[in-house]
């Protein structure tokens, strides 16, 4: 190890690259709080720089000696620094301290599953983990998860600097790092397979723009995926401000913060937009007029609500438009691009599945003219997958465009997300069923609040249309007027109600209705993990057996006459 008494041998100035020259400018010109962290930290640029300086010294002391060169910077073969925290302040400090040494940061989940956690640690070559009191597990427990890993991993507590430790940032003109060097390692969502470790270059964190200091963005989600790691770092490096809630914040807590009327922006998944709606309908809608108006007035201060990761439910968009005229902005990005490829603009009329126009100097290709598989090339996108040369090679075409695996359609200057090529279509014999179309029609039924459509492998027709749905309270839909009750909703009823909307081969043939208390597995980016969903409720991981039977699952035994469907043009009575 390198002792503290050797710290004076190392330069105390910061690297000469846009991350730190931008931070220097902001630290000299902006004096207000930039992060209000519910873990008890109010951050301004002076305390931020002091904490980064202190943590950089601690890393130099604690990391293996052979990681450091004569200048106290990380060698190219040094391991990665894991950051395991629910605190926005500590995430930003951990990233900046590591980046100041030329190192690679790996944000990690604070509630780790042993198998995935060991996989992430080994894949990203993490050998030091920064952690703090926001992590529910004890360091010894986390260490225990790593016993079966490929090498020793050191746990290191993030320490705050002492009061009044701030000194003016100085830049070392001779200390530079290549813009393409890896600064962040972010894992993909794993919604269609095992997560991959995407190497994000330093250039992705180069910002020239300045944000309006009156803007205040709400942070509430786990800090270990692209949609939650980059926003707080980006805000800090652009003079923005953040309000950070504790990990695991519920819809009720978010509504209480919105009621204050200080939040002007949110980064939020479409799934959670719906969750906030459901909380309002169950707990706020029926309050007295005075209390009700407090919530609506506070929420109406939102200037932009930025969604990504999946497609918005049309009913949720209509709900928020009528309630507060919430300015919802749809963006399309991925872990690999690291930034939005498409985005709608504030004030745009919302159109189903539209993600707006090209942004951020992105160059794109669609495989079939105005539609097809999307490939992207843009500044700052990932350079490779760590430890996976085969996946890296497959990810890029001969011109260096990243193959996203997503299908889009272009209408004028607008782009429409059609689905994930590997998971958003079902091959029913010779027919192709679009998952989003069936989900949309299911959710349009008055008695269904959630719908998840997924393929079930079948020996006869290749894939069946499987559906998992959640029913609304029977008192909340019109069917109640005719005596219809939730127990009357079954596969036959659903197929009958959809028969005029969908071709017969698109109708669900296998159904599971969610019971009270049953949930849906989500990735860190709030994408539904459909392989896990299939295993949880259909108890299937491969082909459906001939004698398949599972309690609570209905199967359409009548089958489908494919020749008749073809001759009838698709529609037929079921």
Automatic annotation (TrEMBL):
Top-level taxon: Eukaryota
Single GO MF annotation: medium-chain fatty acid-CoA ligase activity
Segments forming domain AMP-dependent synthetase/ligase: 67-385
A matching Pfam family: AMP-binding
Gene Ontology BP, a term: fatty acid metabolic process
Family: Belongs to the ATP-dependent AMP-binding enzyme family.
Designated name of the protein: AMP-dependent synthetase/ligase
Organism whose genome encodes this protein: Penicillium frequentans
């Amino acid at each position: 190890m390198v002792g503290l008494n050797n710290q004076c041998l190392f330069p105390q100035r910061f690297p000469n690259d846009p991350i730190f020259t931008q931070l220097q400018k902001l630290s000299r010109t902006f004096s207000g709080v930039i992060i209000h962290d519910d873990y008890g930290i109010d951050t301004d640029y002076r305390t931020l720089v002091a904490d980064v300086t202190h943590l950089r010294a601690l890393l130099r002391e604690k990391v293996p000696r052979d990681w450091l060169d004569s200048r106290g910077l990380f060698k190219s073969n040094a391991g990665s620094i894991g950051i395991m925290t629910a605190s926005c302040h500590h995430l930003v400090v951990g990233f900046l301290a590591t980046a100041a040494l030329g190192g690679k940061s790996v944000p990690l989940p604070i509630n780790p599953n042993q198998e995935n956690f060991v996989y992430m640690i080994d894949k990203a070559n993490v050998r030091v983990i920064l952690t703090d009191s926001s992590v529910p597990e004890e360091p010894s427990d986390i260490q225990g998860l790593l016993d079966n890993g490929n090498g020793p991993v050191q746990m290191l507590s993030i320490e705050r600097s002492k009061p009044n430790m701030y000194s003016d940032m100085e830049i070392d003109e001779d200390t530079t790092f290549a813009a393409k060097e890896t600064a962040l390692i972010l894992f993909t969502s794993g919604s269609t397979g095992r997560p991959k470790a995407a190497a994000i270059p330093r250039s992705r964190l180069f910002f020239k723009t300045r944000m309006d200091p009156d803007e205040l963005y709400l942070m509430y989600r786990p800090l270990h995926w692209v949609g939650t790691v980059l926003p707080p770092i980006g805000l800090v490096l652009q003079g923005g401000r953040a309000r950070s809630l504790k990990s695991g914040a519920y819809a009720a807590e978010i509504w209480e913060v919105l009621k204050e009327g200080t939040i002007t922006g949110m980064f939020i998944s479409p799934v959670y937009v719906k969750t906030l709606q459901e909380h309002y309908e169950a707990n706020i809608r029926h309050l007295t007029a005075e209390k009700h108006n407090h919530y609506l007035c506070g929420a109406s201060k939102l200037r932009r609500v930025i969604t990504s990761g999946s497609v918005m439910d049309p009913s949720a968009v209509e709900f928020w438009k009528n309630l507060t005229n919430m300015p919802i902005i749809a963006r399309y990005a991925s872990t690999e691009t690291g930034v939005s490829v498409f985005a709608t603009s504030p004030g745009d009329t919302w159109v189903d599945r539209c993600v707006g126009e090209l942004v951020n100097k992105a160059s794109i290709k669609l495989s079939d003219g105005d539609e097809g598989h999307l490939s992207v090339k843009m500044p700052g996108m990932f350079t490779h997958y760590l430890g996976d040369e085969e996946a890296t090679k497959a990810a890029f075409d001969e011109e260096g465009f990243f193959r996203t695996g997503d299908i889009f359609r272009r209408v004028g200057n607008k782009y429409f997300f059609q689905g994930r090529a590997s998971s958003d279509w079902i091959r029913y014999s010779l027919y192709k069923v679009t998952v989003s179309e069936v989900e949309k029609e299911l959710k349009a039924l008055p008695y269904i609040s959630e719908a998840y459509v997924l393929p079930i492998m079948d020996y006869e027709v290749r894939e069946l249309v499987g559906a998992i749905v959640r029913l609304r309270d029977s008192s909340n839909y019109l069917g109640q007027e005719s005596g219809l009750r939730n127990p009357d909703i079954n596969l036959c009823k659903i197929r009958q109600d959809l028969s005029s909307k969908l071709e017969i081969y698109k109708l669900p043939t296998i159904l599971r209705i969610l019971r009270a208390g049953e949930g849906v597995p989500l990735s860190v980016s709030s994408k539904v993990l459909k392989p896990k969903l299939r295993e949880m409720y259909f108890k299937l991981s491969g082909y459906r057996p001939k004698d398949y039977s599972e309690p609570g699952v209905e199967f359409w035994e009548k089958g489908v006459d494919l020749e008749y469907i073809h001759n009838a043009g698709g529609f037929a009575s079921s």
